[in-house]
Every structure is written in structure tokens, then in C-alpha cells.
Amino acid sequence: MISPEAKAIAAQCRHYAMCKIDFLGTGLCPAGSRRHYVAYYPQGRMDICHALASGLIPVTEGLVHIAETCTLCGICDRQCHFVTEMRPLRVMRELKEHVEAWVKAGNKVEKAPESDLLRRLREIVGAEWATSDPAILASYSHDPCPVSSVKMPRCVVLPNSTDEVARIVRLCNDGGVAYAVRGNGSSVMGFVLCEGVVIDMNRMKSIEIDRENWSAAIGPGVAAFNLQQEAFQQGMRANVAEPAALVAANIMCSGIFSTFSHAYGTAADNYIDAEFVDPKGDIFTLSERGAPNLFGFTKTGMPSPGICTRVTVKLHPRTADEEGVMVPFPDFDGALSFARELGMRRIGAAVAVLGGEYLSTFLSPSRDLADRLKDFFTATLGIQYAVFVVGDRYALDAVKKMKTPVIDNRLLRMFMLGLPRLANGEWSDFLRGFEGDRPLYELIIREDLYPLIEAVLSPSAQTLASAVDEDLRDFYTKLYSRPEMTDMVWINMFRIISSRMGRSKHVVAFIVYVPLERPEVINAIIADFRRIAGNRGIKNDFGFITPLDLGKRGVLEYDYYIDHTNPREIEAAQGAMAEAGAMIEEHSQKTKGVRGIRHTFNQGFSRSEYLLYA
């Protein structure tokens, strides 16, 4: 039997697919690396365990193999704890034990249904890479988004070439079978769910770096983290989104936006060429004269132009003197104005206005420490917002001349590694000695006080590790002994801590392009997001703003947090999302430069000028 506790843990999987990339250097789930179906990764096993415990699927031949191939190595525990504090190894163990006991007792093991569709898919990709096994299908049937519904596919297929994708599309068209394309995890809006064929792009992982042309040609199965790793080894970087997100899918759906979009842009600014399989199954590239015009834009939205099977993205050089700093502010308008000025002056490679929730959650290995850090930054130090900047020494010299004081990487490292001691009595006594009329941060984040702060906090990997479960402390000590884990440039490039935003609840992120020269409009939009969520009892907070196009525009993220297993919260979120969408549309009608995701979806290949100006 699957215990209620294991079932509850399994239900909380956020589908962020972090278990599908080796972001901690722990290695990957061996079965997932070999088999590629999401069902063989921890994320899929969580879904399968919940479905099995709920009586939604039988024990199948595929499920028996999934259970057999789980080695209980514990990689999932370390990876998932880092992101969500969840411990999925218990789920893996109970799933394995349940299936083993079922088989040992001589109970029936169901065979996957055969069909002409499945047979023809296997003729295209090989017998191993197409399935109709209900256990595997269950891991492709839902996502955490409150506006999506469960859709069990007939088949899942994993192509390995553009030709195979084209043949699959033509097969589905000939048979009148619906299909959906899946990246890594889910779209969190239900767009990758389908009752026909789900085309999983996970096997197409080719990366070809062209160092001379500062570019990389990648397959649609390449995740942001893996592309960034390859670029990093060449002394370059890519402009990418969340680490587990597939780069081609990100560009396809909405365009890449990150803190580096400050310098590198968004949409068509980030790629050179792309290859597609169109809805008829024909292959084209954007560089062809007769290709569909994906550079254009329509405010009413567009259907998908096809399946992106290869994209050549731009890479950007790094300099050896790059560092990260945070410039603290007691109010939003001051932070916004400073970020816009950095854009106008072309200062820095990455810039973002961060709120206290974002900042504290990113830096902390536990919810308790995140709450304490947020209170420390906001209530104690008086830092309500911070402008994050990555730049070379010339850029950072300019930042320090424009605004002081700043939190440099040395001080932030002390805060991160000394987090467990931030709220104890000794630290409070230290701070009381600096009380005055000015915000406390102006008094204490001075370089001459660093030795005192270091003495009080005793920052070290061991100190930080003392805040996690005892059996994980050795792992966290080794992990945070690595210098990149507390380096602002590295963690911003690889973004492995951004997924912590969904630690307590699933995040519904609203993305809006806004005019930075109109702070009153931005404040009104943020106030509307807050009001809509507050009226429905939904936890919410400001995420970030990154300036674009020399400070003319910015990309704003505002976040709603929901328990995707709670019917009341799902209903509240559905109403809030509908109202928020209408609110964004109303602002868009009144103000040039305001655009929401409903305007940009499926138009990530368009020229950024259309998104930012039209």
C-alpha cells in the first residue's frame, strides 16, 4: 500500500523538472538518463505514485520496469530538497516496494494496449521510443496550473531527428489525431497536454558551439542549464531562462527574458536562425526567403507556427573581472528609477529590481531561513528593494559612484553562509549599536565593518548546513564549499535558485512588458495584482523588473502562490487569473508599451521592437 503521507508528498510535485538536469553536480537519476521518458525521472515517479494511490492506473508492465530501474540512490532527495525542501525518496521507496509486493503476490500486471497508431509511431522512432503504457501516459497527463485539466494521451513518442518529427506530424494529420509538443516539465498552462499524441523532445539534445561566430546550434531537447554549461566552458554565456526550461521552447512560446535581457535583449535579439516542422509536416528555416514571417507580430495572438527542431542562438563574451552587486533601496520608486538610469546609460550586463520575497527565497536553503532573511532585510536593515547588477569593473565603478552603499559579493557571501545566525541574540546586540536616523543598511554595509560582521556571523558552509536536516548536512557543507554557490554572477547565469520561488507553493507568474518612463502605470499594475490576489486570499508578491531597450521598457514579473492540490485555492486562482488577464488587457488598451503574455504567446521569434514599441 502507498501511505497517505507518500501520496501527499507525491501530489505536491511542482513539475519544474529540476530533477532532469544535473544542477548540483550530483549526477542524474540513472533510469531517467537512460530512458528519457518523464516517467523514469523522479518527477514522473511522483505523478505515477499519486495516480496509483488514487486508483487511476493499474500496475502495468511499464510500471514494473519503472520500479525495477529505481536504484533508491537518493539523488532526488538532494535535488528536490535544494529546491522545495521536499524529500521524494520516501515516495520512490514506497512505489518500488508496492510494485514489488504486487508482483510477488502473483497479482495481474496489465499489458499496454496495442493500436495501429502505436505500431506506426514505432516504425518511425523505434519500438523503445513510443508507448501507450498507462503508467507512462499518466506522467504526461496534467500540470499544476489551476486552469488546466487532466488529459490522458493515447501515446507518447520521443523522436530523435527533424525528419522523425515531420513524419510524426504527417501521421497524426493523416489519421486526424491531435498532438501536443512537450518540453521539459510542462507549460504550466496546459498547452502540452493532449488526448492524442504527446511528442516529447527530450532525446534531441545536440549542442554545437561555434566559438568563432559566438553562437550555438542546439536541438529542442537542450535545457538552459546545459547550454549555459557549454557556453561557460568556452568563456561565453547565453541569455537563458529557468535552468530546466528547454531553450527552443522558451524562445518559441514567449521569447527569452532574464536579468541579462538588460544587455542582450529579448525575442529575435537572442537567435540567428531556426528550423521548424510546420503543422502540415513540412520543414522550413527562418532564413529561407519563402519561410513564414515569424518576425512579425499581432496583438491578437497567434497559433503555433509549428515545432521548432533546431535553433541557432547567440552567445556573448564574459570578462574575467565581472562581479555582482546589489544596491539597496527603502522604496520601489527609487529602485525603479535607478534601474532605468542604468539602462539609459548602458551600464552593466544584467540588471533587475528585486523584492524582498524574491531575494530572501533565492538565497535561503529553507523556508524558515527565507522568512528570517526577508525580515532581516526589510524590517531590520530597511531594504525593501534592491537593484541587482552584474558588470565588469568599469560598470561597477560607475554604479558605486552613482549610488552608495552597495552590497558586494563578499558581504552577500557572509550573509548567505551566516544565515542561521542572523536572528540570534548576538547579532541583534551587534545591530543595536548602529541605531540612528538613517536606514540601518546605510550604516552597517560598509567595508570597514566587514571584519566585525564576519566575526558575528561566522559564515561558513558548515554554519549554513546546520539549518538543514541532519542527514543532509554533509552534502550541503560540500555543496556550499564550492565558491560558485555564493557567487552572484554564477548563480544569476545558471539560475539554479530561481526555482526556489515555488518552494512553499506552486508559482503562477504573470509577465508584463511595461514602460519604465511611466512609474505611475507600473505602480498601478502592481497594485491591481495585489488587490486581485488579496480579495481572494491568495499569497502574492512582486517578483522583479528588468530594464530593456536602454531603459525605454521593462519586463515585470508578479507572482501568485497557490496550493495546486487544494480545491479552494484552485478555484480562487482561476478567478484571480481571469481578472488579472482582463486587468492587463485594460492597461494595454490605455497605455502604450504594456503587453501581457496573452499578447506574446507563440510569438517569441518576433522582433523585439514589435513587442516593445508597436
Please describe the topology of this protein.
Elements: H1 4-11, H2 30-35, H3 42-53, H4 61-69, H5 75-84, H6 89-104, H7 116-125, E1 130-131, H8 134-138, E2 155-157, H9 162-175, E3 179-182, E4 197-200, E5 207-210, E6 215-218, H10 224-233, E7 236-237, H11 247-253, H12 261-264, E8 271-277, E9 283-285, E10 307-314, E11 316-317, E12 323-329, H13 332-344, E13 350-355, H14 356-363, H15 367-380, E14 385-391, H16 393-402, H17 409-417, H18 425-432, H19 440-444, H20 450-457, H21 461-465, H22 473-479, H23 488-494, E15 506-515, H24 519-535, E16 539-548, E17 553-562, H25 567-590, E18 595-596, H26 597-600, H27 608-612
Helix pairs in contact: 1-3, 3-6, 4-6, 7-9, 14-15, 17-20, 24-25
Outline of the structure:
The protein has about 625 residues and is an alpha+beta fold.
Please give a structural write-up.
Helix content is 42%, strand content 15%. It is an alpha+beta fold. The protein has 4 domains: 4-104, no CATH class; 207-317, 2-Layer Sandwich (Uridine Diphospho-n-acetylenolpyruvylglucosamine Reductase, domain 3); 323-500, no CATH class; 505-612, GMP Synthetase, Chain A, domain 3. The strands form 4 sheets. Strands 12-14-13-16-17-15-18 form a 7-stranded antiparallel beta sheet. It starts with a helix and ends with a helix. 51% of the residues are buried. The mean pLDDT is 93.
**Total of DSSP H or I helical runs spanning 4+ residues:** 27
Low-confidence runs of at least 5 consecutive residues: none
**Secondary structural class:** alpha+beta
Could you give the order of strands across the largest sheet?
12-14-13-16-17-15-18
Question: Which shape, going by the Cα principal axes?
Answer: globular
